[in-house]
Amino acid sequence: MMKREIYQEKTERAWSKLCDRLDRDGLLSEPNRKPHTAKIVMWAAAAAAVVALFIVSTPRTVPKHEAVADNLISQRNDDRGTVLIKTLEDNSTVYMTGNSVLECPSRFSDKERKVNLDGEALFDVTHQQRHPFVIDTKGMSIQVLGTCFNVKCGSHGDFELDVFRGRVKVTDKKNGGMEVVSAGEMVRLENNRLNRYKLVDDRNLRKYNSNMRFKDEKLCNIVKAINTINVDKEIKVADVVRNRRLTVAFANDNPQTMAMLLGEALHLKCIEEGNVITIK
Questions:
Q1: pTM (2 decimals)?
Q2: How far is Cα 149 from Cα 213, in angstroms, rounded to an integer?
Q3: Are 196 and 187 in contact, with CB atoms under 8 Å apart?
Q4: What is the SS3 assignment for 9?
Q5: Among the listed residues 124, 130, 200, 194, the one whose alpha carbon sits nearest the alpha carbon of residue 165
Q6: Is 43 helix (H, G, I), strand (E, B) or coil?
Q7: Closest Cα to residue 22, out of 14, 9, 31, 35?
Q8: Predicted confidence band at 188 (pLDDT cuts at 50, 70, 90)?
């Protein structure tokens, strides 16, 4: 009984303070009115309704330039023997080698698409003219609009970038050195300087063709990633099944085998006509 009286006394004291505040702000119809404890729930509900009405009635429009991205999500590939492939919110594809870490938002800001990379990855970036894609590494800042390239950055400051499609701007954070690298070219950090060379082969692209791993990815994203690094056959997906999700891994498989495995995993048919394989 004593506890109940103490609780009631504290409740009434707290409610009195609230009423005084409402009275000072002119929100009470009868000045200095103090409700009984039995009416607290009803008054609280009414006050909540007033607050809710006020919030709904006075919305704040957030300017586009104030929009910010979600908190960064860390994508890590701890398996040195496989390539982990992730599709980002803008439909760009990232192929991460072993011991690589990618930090990216689940939703990009309105200003730019920015990620952080530690390790090595192949990027196939979706083109968005007014929405640049920026990759931050320990010593470099990389900016692209829409392209395919491989970037390697180590903890000791070593850096190399190969461009297979489009153009990429690389900026050295330390000394401000900048290079624009086009398709068929590469740039490497040597003696604290960015040096540009002709790309003599595509080994850094072809190595992603083996031991690929997908985790809870849409079928259309898996096929897009496979097609990017395979030119012998093109895999297509029927619209009715393109959003089916699955987790799957491939080990040195050709496009025909990968299409067949995808079809079997989802109980779908694979039809091959010329250089096109359709999953439906």
A1: 0.72
A2: 19
A3: yes
A4: helix
A5: 124
A6: helix
A7: 31
A8: very high
